[in-house]
């Protein structure tokens, strides 16, 4: 339970009164202080939900003699009206009594997770120890790092596949990956022991959109394998968990709902892959880095042409390096079906801001193949300059340049925009304003620096206009033996053939350095300074589907969520069913509903469960608030709150 001064109540839309009606304004406060409080509260609660593996959670927010009840789930939150617990103690008494008498499921615990036996824990530890030794050998580490925490952190996870309906069990310790920040889909990844095969697998646990036309990730993997797409991890199983779904969206049409972006239904989902890999940043040499990225492009192209699927979220977390130095292109949950016109099926942003194409950052548009291709280029550039054997002489200045290039963003009205620096870089003929070739050659091998520069020039025609375009066409005619029109030049971006050929030629060149894996120059590189606390983008609520028929035959695919990409997001306030407002007291306050949700940009607002009974909201911490004010409005209910135990 959190206690704040009365004047710091973040859920008062008017400075002159404690509550407002739907026509009077927004539910949450507008001051900088209340914005920070809201962001801190969201961050802390969702962090608790992930660490305690909760599907939903109740908290009480005290303001001296007043209190509000809040019910949180992965779609948002419901906030009750503020009332005096001294003058009206009955509602608080009944609330606490009911919460303390709820079952584990009633308090939001994930009932698909159980305690493994001692034998199962030992079997998992054995396989994880073997994995740790193998990774130490691959990395050339002198010491072996443990892949698990204490024995009491192990849990048994149940997954029932959506297709064959077979029940499988997996044992895992602490996650090896958590979405940062925690908000969004609450995505966590585990190295887990498959109890059926006694092998280690990768298990992805997330809360995905439950009412979406996006593709089901498990079915996507099945289609990719059916169409023989290379460099795709084998699928073990994928399924929705025990009908665990959010409720916040259920009251969005109630008269007391605050206005703003609507919360979306989410459902709990697990996907298990039968292979493990290293993060892309753990490349052993820059040649391995470039090889793996080129193989990821090969998988992306094959998925586009054979399976008619566009990945739509090319980022450093979505390519893994196998133990034998090859690629796995993973994380297909934001993928789009390719329409007959060759673009994705939705208008709107998806992807990770750092790697998003300049065109996607500056406007809302249909996702095209060349947007993903440009993301592959930024993936190459980002990892090439960030992980270095030797730091540049002026590291602070180099970092500032890098952050400006990859992460700068600003709001134009309600839209988050960016990518102008990327466009400047791509348009430059020579002496690019960021990372010019002569500077790259000081940090990288000659073929590596040349690779980056030649790929950059492939994208130049896409961002040129007027005399600059005419000059580029002339240069292409003279020096590159390429076609003479912009449209013809852009043909080279409608497939990865030209870019793959540049990779092939440069990887065959002599001069690559051996064992030049570098250390992270920016280990504390966090969220963009002008972007909300979360930075992962997902398709916004305004996603508009094309009316043309899909290129993929109809199937029984389940919709998949999108994130609020590291991946993706804007904070907004909406509605939900009131939390446990006591129905036995005629004096119980009429609830005000306040849904806290994101229209993702990616970042990610996700959560997992909490263990224990009456856990309260953690104390507030200082985190950077979103520059865009949440839009929400409370509405006072004319009826008694529904629900109860």
UniProtKB/TrEMBL annotation:
Polar residues bias: start-end ranges: 12-21, 549-558, 634-645
Superkingdom of this protein's organism: Eukaryota
SUPFAM superfamilies assigned to the protein according to its UniProt record, in alphabetical order: Protein kinase-like (PK-like)
Disordered: annotated segments: 1-23, 539-565, 597-645
Compositionally biased region (Acidic residues): 1-10
A Pfam match: Pkinase_fungal
Domain Fungal-type protein kinase, chain residue ranges per copy: 40-382
PANTHER family reported for this sequence: FUNK1 11, FUNK1 6
Protein's name in the database: Fungal-type protein kinase domain-containing protein
Native source organism of the sequence: Heterobasidion irregulare (strain TC 32-1)
């Amino acid at each position: 339970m959190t206690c704040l001064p009365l004047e710091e109540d973040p859920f008062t839309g008017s400075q002159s009164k404690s509550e407002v009606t739907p026509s009077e304004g927004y539910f949450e406060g507008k001051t900088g202080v209340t914005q920070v409080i809201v962001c801190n509260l969201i961050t802390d609660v969702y962090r608790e939900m992930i660490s305690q593996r909760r599907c939903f959670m109740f908290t009480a927010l005290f303001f001296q003699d007043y209190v509000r009840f809040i019910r949180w789930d992965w779609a948002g939150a419901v906030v009750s009206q503020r009332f005096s617990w001294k003058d009206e103690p009955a509602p608080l008494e009944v609330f606490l009594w009911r919460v303390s008498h709820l079952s584990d499921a009633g308090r939001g615990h994930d009932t698909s997770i159980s305690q493994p036996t001692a034998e199962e824990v030992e079997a998992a530890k054995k396989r994880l120890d073997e994995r740790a030794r193998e990774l130490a050998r691959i990395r050339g580490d002198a010491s072996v790092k443990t892949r698990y925490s204490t024995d009491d952190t192990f849990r048994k996870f149940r997954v029932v596949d959506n297709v064959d309906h077979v029940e499988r069990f997996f044992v895992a310790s602490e996650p090896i990956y958590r979405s940062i920040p925690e908000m969004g889909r609450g995505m966590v990844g585990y190295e887990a022991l498959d109890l059926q095969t006694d092998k280690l697998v990768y298990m992805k646990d997330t809360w995905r959109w439950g009412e979406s036309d996006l593709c089901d990730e498990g079915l996507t993997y099945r289609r990719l394998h059916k169409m023989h797409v290379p460099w795709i991890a084998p699928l073990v199983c994928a399924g929705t968990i025990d009908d665990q779904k959010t409720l916040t969206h259920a009251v969005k049409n109630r008269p007391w709902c605050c206005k703003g972006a609507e919360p979306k239904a989410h459902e709990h989902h697990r996907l298990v892959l039968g292979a493990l890999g290293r993060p892309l940043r753990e490349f052993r040499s820059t040649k391995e880095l470039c090889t793996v990225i080129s193989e990821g492009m090969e998988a992306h192209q094959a998925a586009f042409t054979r399976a008619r699927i566009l990945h739509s979220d090319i980022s450093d977390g979505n390519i893994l390096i196998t133990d034998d130095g090859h690629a796995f292109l993973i994380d297909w949950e934001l993928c789009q079906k390719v329409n007959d016109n060759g673009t994705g099926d939705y208008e709107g942003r998806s992807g990770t801001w750092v790697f998003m194409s300049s065109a996607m950052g500056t406007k809302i548009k249909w996702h095209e193949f060349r947007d993903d291709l440009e993301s592959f280029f930024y993936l190459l550039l980002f990892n090439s300059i960030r992980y270095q054997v030797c730091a540049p002489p002026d590291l602070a200045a180099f970092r500032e340049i890098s952050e400006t290039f990859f992460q700068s963003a600003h709001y134009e009205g309600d839209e988050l925009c960016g990518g102008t620096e990327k466009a400047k870089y791509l348009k430059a003929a020579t002496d690019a304003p960021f990372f010019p070739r002569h500077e790259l050659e000081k940090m990288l091998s000659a073929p590596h620096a040349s690779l980056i520069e030649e790929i950059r020039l492939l994208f130049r025609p896409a961002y040129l206009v007027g005399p600059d375009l005419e000059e580029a066409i002339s240069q292409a005619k003279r020096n590159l033996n390429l076609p003479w029109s912009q449209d013809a030049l852009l043909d080279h971006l409608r497939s990865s053939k030209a870019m793959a050929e540049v990779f092939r030629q440069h990887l065959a060149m002599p001069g690559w350095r051996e064992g030049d894996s570098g250390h992270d120059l920016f280990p504390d590189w966090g969220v963009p300074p002008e972007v909300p606390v979360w930075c992962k983008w997902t398709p916004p609520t305004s996603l508009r589907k094309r009316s043309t028929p899909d290129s993929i035959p109809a199937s029984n695919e389940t919709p998949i969520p999108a994130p609020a990409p590291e991946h993706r997001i804007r904070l907004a306030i909406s509605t939900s069913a009131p939390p446990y407002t006591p129905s036995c007291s005629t004096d119980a306050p009429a609830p005000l509903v306040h849904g806290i949700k994101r229209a993702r940009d990616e970042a990610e607002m996700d959560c997992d469960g909490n263990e224990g009974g009456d856990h309260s909201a953690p104390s507030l911490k200082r985190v950077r608030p979103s520059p865009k004010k949440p839009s929400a409005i409370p509405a006072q209910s004319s009826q008694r709150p529904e629900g109860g135990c």
